[in-house]
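Re: iron/sulfur/oxygen hybrid cluster structure - here you go.
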Amino acid sequence: MFCYQCQETARNTGCTVIGVCGKKDNVANLQDLLIYILKGLAYVCEKTGKSNEEIDEFIVDALFTTITNVNFDDEDIIRKIKKGLELREELKSKYACSECCGELPDYAAWMPKNDEDIIAKAYSKEVSVQATENEDIRSLRELITYGLKGIGAYMCHAMALGYNDENVHKFIKKALVATKDDSLSADDLTALVLETGKYAVDTMALLDKANTETYGHPEITEVDIGVRNNPGILISGHDLKDMEQLLEQTKGTGVDVYTHGEMLPANYYPAFKKYEHFVGNYGGAWHAQLTEFEAFNGPIVMTTNCLVPPKDSYKDRIYMTGAVGFPGLKRIPEDENGNKDFSEVIEHAKKCAPPKRLETGKIVGGFAHNQVLALADKVVEAVKSGAIRKFVVMAGCDGRHNTRKYYTEFAKALPKDTVILTAGCAKYRYIKLNLGDIGGIPRVLDAGQCNDSYSLAVIALKLKEVFGLEDINELPIAYNIAWYEQKAVAVLLALLYLGVKDIVLGPTLPAFLSPNVAKVLVDKFGISTISTVEEDIERLINK
Ligand code: FSO
Ligand code: SF4
C-alpha cells in the first residue's frame, strides 16, 4: 500500500505498511482500485457522451467511500468495484462504438474473472498512486483527486436531501479522466486544480441551500454539553437527513439523542431544536471517540467519517449508515426512498445505562452566514470603532497528534480584540475555553460543519462589499487553517478559487504536495505552514 492523502500520514511521507488511521493494506489497495475503476467509468462516459443518475450517484458515493476514516471494509469496497464495472460495461454495451471506444486504456477495459483477480489487481503498481512516475504530475493528480473526494462527500449529503447539480457531476467525470491523461502538462493540471476549487464552492453552496431550505438557517444556540438521566443515542458524522430521521423515530420513546464530533452543528438548526429529547452535544472531536464512546454507554450512529477502528468494548454499540464501513459493525437498513429504520438502535438504547457525565456547561454556536449577516450592523460597527481589530479563520479539522495543541495555545494567545471564525471539528481545540465576547459578539463564532466553511466565505464576501473593498484580501481577516482529510482539501481549493491569499495551513503541509507544487502554492497564493504561536500571532495579527 501507499497512501498519503491525509495529514496524519506516516512520517509525513506516506503510510506503507498499515495506515496511521488503522486502514489495512488490502483496504488501501482496494480503495486505489476503486478510484482506478471510477476513472475508467468516467472515461467511458466522456467518450460515449452518455451518463445517467445511477452512475453519478455511484461516483460520488465511491469517492466518499475512499475518504480517510470512512470505510475500512474490504468486502464493501469489492462490492463497489464490481458495481462500477457493471455500470461501465452496461454503458459500453448500449453506446460504445469503434470510433469512440475503439482502443480503451486498461483502466476502462480491465475485467476480472473473480475476486482473486480483483485482489491481485488491487496490489498491482498500475493502480497505485505511485504509478505516476513524475512527482509533480503525481502531486497535482492527487491534489485534484482528493479535492474530488471532498466534493463527492458534500454532493452525497446534498443529494440525500433531494438537491443536485448536473454540472458538478460533469466536472467530476472530466477531472477524473484528466488525472489519467498523459498529454496534460503541469500547467494544465494546475488550472484544473483551481477549477476543482470552483466546483467545491458550487457544491458547498448547494449543500448549504439543501440544509437551510430543509432545516432552516442555523441560529445562535447554547448547546448543553452535560447529560440527562435517560438512555441515549449518540449520532456523529455530517448527514442531517439521518439526524432528522433519528430524532423523529426516537420521539416519545424515552430515549434521548446527543451529537458527537461533526454532528454538533445539528443543534443550531431550527428544525431540530423542536425535539425535546434532543439534549445537546456529548464530548469532542472524532479522535476522542475511543474514550467517549466507551463512556456514553448507549448506541452510537456513525453517519459519515470520522470512524476510528472501534474497541471491542463498544463495537457492538456502533451502527453505520451511508458510505461508512467496518467489518462486523451493524448497518442501518435503508429503503429505496432513502428512509432508514432506526428501530433496532432505539431498542438497543432502551437496554443501556444513561451516558456517563463528561462535563457540564454550554457551547455557543450557530453563526452561519444568515445569523452573522443578521448581526452585520453590530459587526461592522465593532470593526469601524476598532473594538474588533481582526478576524481569524481557524476552520478545518482536529486530529490526534500533539502538535495540534498549537491551536489551543494560539486561540488563548490571540489578543482580546480578535474574533475566531470557525467551522469543522478544529473548533474543539478552543470552543470550550470561554474566550469571552466583544460587545456581545462571542470571540469564537462557529458556523458549523466543515462544509459550512462556505458560510465563512459568504461572510467575507459580504464584509468586502460593506467596506467597499476591491479585494477580499484587504479585509482584516487572517487564515490559520487546520486540515486532516480530503474534505479539507476541497475547502482549501475553494478558498484558493475565491482568491484568498496568505493562508497558513497546518499542522503540516500535505505530504502529497511535491516541492515544486508546494512552491507554486507559496508563490501564487502565499500559502505557508504554522511556526510558533508567538511568531504566528506576530505575522498574522500584529503585522
Ligand atoms: Fe472529519 Fe473533522 Fe468534517 Fe473535517 S470530522 S475532519 S474537513 O472537520 O470534516 O469530517
Ligand atoms: Fe495513512 Fe491517512 Fe492514508 Fe490512513 S488515510 S492510510 S493515515 S495517509
